[in-house]
Amino acid sequence: MLSALGNPRQAAAQLMNFGLILSTAFMMWKGLSVISDSPSPIVVVLSGSMEPAFQRGDLLLLWNRNLFTETSVGEVVVYNVRDKDIPIVHRVISKFGTGPTAKLLTKGDNNDSDDTKLYAPGQNYLVREDIIGCVAPD
Amino acid sequence: MATQEKITVYNLADLKNTTDDAIPNYLTSLSFTPSHILTDVRLALGFSAFALSAACFAWDYNFGFESTKTYTAFAVALYTILNGLLTFWIFYVEKGTIYQGTSPKGDKIRISTETKKNVPVYHMTIEVKDGKTGERKTLKISRSFTEWFDAAGRFVAAPLQTVLAQGVDVVGRVDTKRANAAKVEGGEAGPSAVYTPEMLAMLSGEGVSVVGSAAETARGTEAAEAKKGGKRRKN
């Protein structure tokens, strides 16, 4: 196995095999990311704020392209609060305007109030840019 | 000499890999000149794919996803192409080749090997091109692994070298000692008549992991008597 690394080519070949395993896994992730246009195409549901639809620990596949229709009210979206890295999975409950500057308000199904408290201080709504993907319908 | 490594005789991959590593050692000890083209292309393809993915990781880590999206898309596509080429190279061009080179007399040789799942038989396909006449030949030799592994899993080089020296004239011309040794009547069915399991164990217990006939001459007496089929007790 690793014992007889007598010649450099054999050592290089084994190093290459190891490196290719890592890089293929990474490239598959990046490929999925590019196809769905989302920086994080697979997310884990972290809280119970969307029960009973999504439970804690569920894996969600995201799609961040608006090929046919814009993000509309009723869709479940994932967003990061400005400058934070925690993805929040909630539903869009109201929308003002159209296009990339439309203002979106979200709320967790299992929460009592909307997400205004969760947004950054001074932020009262989301725009399409903040959203990193919509949950793909099953 | 240090005690030899033992491999698991039931693990076909171990048997094949150990034998695959031994054949290039043997041929190199006979002053064959190996040709590294196959390995080098494979390494070039693999490492360039790895370098590409490392670069992709670096710019994604430093600049974030949004600004580097296009580069990442191209990188993924190029990586897929490189990996596809690498797979093609391994399956269709290399095709199980373990050695490619030229003998000191100018003959070219290429050895590819394979095993079938769960059958302990080593199939070698040897393509030779005569240096002087330019004539090409393809030989197939299939032997049971029991001919050069003893029951404990130690590898004994001598029987394998004899099989090659007697089976392939290009090798036999260079390794005359083995080519003229007692004929190895082996085959897929069972071990050779000359090297019984006891003798294999004795030879390996000697610490015989040397390669090539030059080293064998040093311990010539024991090996010669073993080849004659005599039961010789070591004390």
From TrEMBL, chain A:
It is a single-pass type II membrane protein. It comes from the Eukaryota. It is found in: Endoplasmic reticulum membrane. It catalyses: Cleavage of hydrophobic, N-terminal signal or leader sequences from secreted and periplasmic proteins. The keyword Endoplasmic reticulum applies. The keyword RNA-binding does not apply. Keywords: Endoplasmic reticulum, Hydrolase, Membrane, Protease, Signal-anchor, Transmembrane, Transmembrane helix. Its EC number is 3.4.21.89. One of its GO terms (molecular function) is signal peptidase activity. Component of the signal peptidase complex (SPC) composed of a catalytic subunit SEC11 and three accessory subunits SPC1, SPC2 and SPC3. The complex induces a local thinning of the ER membrane which is used to measure the length of the signal peptide (SP) h-region of protein substrates. This ensures the selectivity of the complex towards h-regions shorter than 18-20 amino acids. SPC associates with the translocon complex. Belongs to the peptidase S26B family. PANTHER family: SIGNAL PEPTIDASE COMPLEX CATALYTIC SUBUNIT SEC11. Catalytic component of the signal peptidase complex (SPC) which catalyzes the cleavage of N-terminal signal sequences from nascent proteins as they are translocated into the lumen of the endoplasmic reticulum. Specifically cleaves N-terminal signal peptides that contain a hydrophobic alpha-helix (h-region) shorter than 18-20 amino acids. This is Signal peptidase complex catalytic subunit SEC11.
TrEMBL record, chain B:
The chain crosses the membrane at residues 41-59, 71-92. Residues 215-235 are annotated as: Disordered. InterPro entries: Spc2/SPCS2. It is a multi-pass membrane protein. Keywords: Endoplasmic reticulum, Membrane, Transmembrane, Transmembrane helix. Pfam families: SPC25. It is found in: Endoplasmic reticulum membrane. It comes from the Eukaryota. The keyword Membrane applies. Component of the signal peptidase complex (SPC) which catalyzes the cleavage of N-terminal signal sequences from nascent proteins as they are translocated into the lumen of the endoplasmic reticulum. Enhances the enzymatic activity of SPC and facilitates the interactions between different components of the translocation site. Belongs to the SPCS2 family. This is Signal peptidase complex subunit 2. It comes from Podospora pseudopauciseta. The lineage of its organism: Eukaryota, Fungi, Dikarya, Ascomycota, Pezizomycotina.
